[in-house]
Amino acid sequence: MQTWFPMLFLFILGLLAGVVVNHLATVLPAHRNVPVPYCPYCGRERPWWQWLTLPSFLVSRAYCPHCGAPLRLRYPLVELGLATAYVYLWGTLGANVNIRLVLYLVYGAIFAIILVTDIERRLILNRVTYPAIILAFLASFVTPGMTWWSALTGGLIGFVFFSVAALIGNRLFGDGALGGGDIKLAAFIGLITGFPLIVEALVLTLLIGAGVSLLLLITHVRRRRDHIPYGPFLVIGAIITLLHGYPIAHWFLSR
User: Fold this and answer.
1) Of 232, 130, 148, which is closest to residue 187 (Cα–Cα)?
2) How distant is the alpha carbon of residue 148 from its chain centre?
3) Dihedral sign, CA of 115, 141, 146, 162?
4) How far is CA 13 from its chain centroid?
5) How far from chain centre, in Å, is Cα 33?
6) Residues 137-181: pLDDT tens digits?
7) 166 falls within a domain
8) pLDDT digits (tens, 9 = 90+) for 171-190
9) Distance from C-alpha of 186 to C-alpha of 180, rounded to nearest angstrom
10) Domain identity same for 70 and 142
11) By the 8 A CB rule, do 200 and 245 touch?
12) Among 1, 6, 73, 171, which one has the highest count of C-beta atoms within 10 angstroms of its own C-beta?
């Protein structure tokens, strides 16, 4: 009971966080001020029992009761993904409640919003990254093993590195290869990983991004001038670094 209760609690918390993430990822890019989930097709509010969409998909009622439009598959995927991630974080960080776990739960929701908006709309919104950057800097004062100067150094490295990468990438591949959203996301990641782990996060981002991009080009899924969202690569690199940064660094340096 003592083991399953926190796992169940975090699973439910992740589902509810998914509801909030889905709603924000829908309303923020559209510049709408709708307080509850709504159908993007007819604009009418979804009934309360459909705010959490996973049960609707499980019982084959995954459509708007007003206009009959199907619910996006993104909704249950985000809910289930965050629920699973929250349970995984609890186990990975020592199976107890602490400030690092709380912060990582919040960071996970922020990353989820960024992933959805970047993949769907090629947008990493200032209304997400600016508050995230402020939160990350303030959190550096209470995060175990982190100092404010380490966080600030990491944020500056991420910002400068991706600013230079954006200049080079846009010159080589055209405007939009990397945007201001990617630069601010890199700064946020630098703040939460700190120095020197930001270096590892950037290296992982480049390796993952290059590998996936090359695969897409070889398979002709994308062409050289096609836009490939870089936000997901930054997020993946950041998550790996946050959870396994020092073990990876120690393994690499010992080779």
Assistant:
1) 130
2) 23
3) positive
4) 17
5) 22
6) 999 999 988 999 999 999 999 999 999 988 887 776 666 667 889
7) yes
8) 766 666 678 899 999 999 99
9) 10
10) no
11) yes
12) 6
How far apart CA 165 and CA 68 sit, in angstroms, is 45
Over 50: is that where the pLDDT of 90 sits?
A: yes
pLDDT score at 243: 93
| Local structure of residue 71 (DSSP, 8 states) | P
One-character DSSP codes across 9-59? HHHHHHHHHHHHHHHHHHHHHHT---SS-B-TTT-PBPPGGGSS-HHHHHT
User: Is 192 found in the same domain as 71?
Assistant: no
First to last CA, the chain: 43
Q: What angle do CA 252, 108, 125 make, to 5 degrees?
A: 105
| pLDDT-based confidence at residue 251 (cuts at 50, 70, 90) | confident
Q: How far is CA 112 from CA 2, 11, 116, in A?
A: 29, 16, 6
3-class secondary-structure state, position 202: helix
Considering the domain architecture, whether residues 194 and 82 belong to the same structural domain is answered as: no
